[in-house]
């Protein structure tokens, strides 16, 4: 698992550096990094304190993202405890939808990172066919997830929240290339 944790931390580090280079900061970073939350959680679940410390030292972007998400988590917990969290009354999504949503978000993160890496290397044209194929696959996966949500009995407010996040993600991906 340690090798997988290094792969995830390196991917997070790279994407954070890409976003910082573009001048994206604060809450906007969180929106761009939604697809990495599952990987971060996987590291938290599987890495020892020593390995986590090593990852933070080796990958500064990973450390900044982990720190940002930890702060956000603490604020969420405070709002829950105070009864002021805006989504406190929403039921949790069914497991199948959560897994599908997490997978789609992770593939969006991979796609955005791959596009930016192709731009950064200065040889975008060499990667365009592969990236377009990945983009089309992501679009098809998005459509399947939208249909899955539409056919579910998920609360309308929950559907709106997910739709908003997916719309922003799809807009960013459609601007790629």
Give an overview in words:
It is a single chain. This protein has 2 domains: 2-82, no CATH class; 95-175. The protein is built from 8 helices and no strands. It has helices at 2-21, 27-32, 37-46, 49-58, 60-82, 95-120, 124-150, 156-175. It is globular and about 50 Å long.
Low-confidence stretches: none
Strand content: under 5%
Number of domains: 2
* SS class: mainly alpha
Helix content: over 70%
What sort of overall outline do the alpha carbons produce when their principal axes are compared? globular
Count of helix runs: 8
Mean pLDDT: 90
- The beta-strand count equals 0
- Elements, N to C (H/E): HHHHHHHH
Largest sheet: none
- The gyration radius over C-alpha positions equals 17 Å
List the helices and strands and how they pair.
Layout: H1 2-21, H2 27-32, H3 37-46, H4 49-58, H5 60-82, H6 95-120, H7 124-150, H8 156-175
Helix pairs in contact: 1-3, 1-5, 1-6, 4-5, 6-7, 6-8, 7-8
Relevant terms:
177 residues, 80% helix, mainly alpha, 8 helices
Short description:
This protein is mostly helical and 177 residues long. Helices cover 80% and strands 0% of the residues. The protein has helices at residues 2-21, 27-32, 37-46, 49-58, 60-82, 95-120, 124-150, 156-175.
